[in-house]
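Each letter names a residue; structure tokens follow underneath. Both lines appear below:
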Amino acid sequence: MVQAVTPPSTRGAEGLNALSRRLVLALPLVYATTAFSQEAFVHEIVRDIPMPRDRIFDAAVLWLAESVRSLNAVIDLKDKEIGVVVATPTTPLSIGWGAKVPMSFKLKVEVKDNKYRLTFSQVQLNFDYGFKSIEHANRESLEPKARERFNELAGSLHSYLLAAGNAKPW
């Protein structure tokens, strides 16, 4: 019986061609996973305030109702027992040259005695062509502006809490 044998030089080229085809097919997958594996944008602020937990919680809920209502806030969770309020407000974000774009985000307020934490996450920008997460928009330009806006909101809550702490019961 005669068996056909492929010369070694041909076998090596076929193996190399198969390997290069696999690499060419795998490269887009590697690029896609690295392109979309950016770290999620989260902005956290922790502040001290001389106030018991229950009063901080009640005042934070009132602040959301009074101050952030103009931001079209939707309260997703309000649990006084665990000291957490989660809302999804929308606020205008200045993007430059006088232009503003609606920015939606998740706002989590956590309270303890004499302390509270604000966590801003899941930031979405509503451009004319639809929603886009801040991670996939012009992040270098928009992230500092979003942080500035979140710091303004945190300052507003802190001022509200200070005023509530100084208010006398009626």
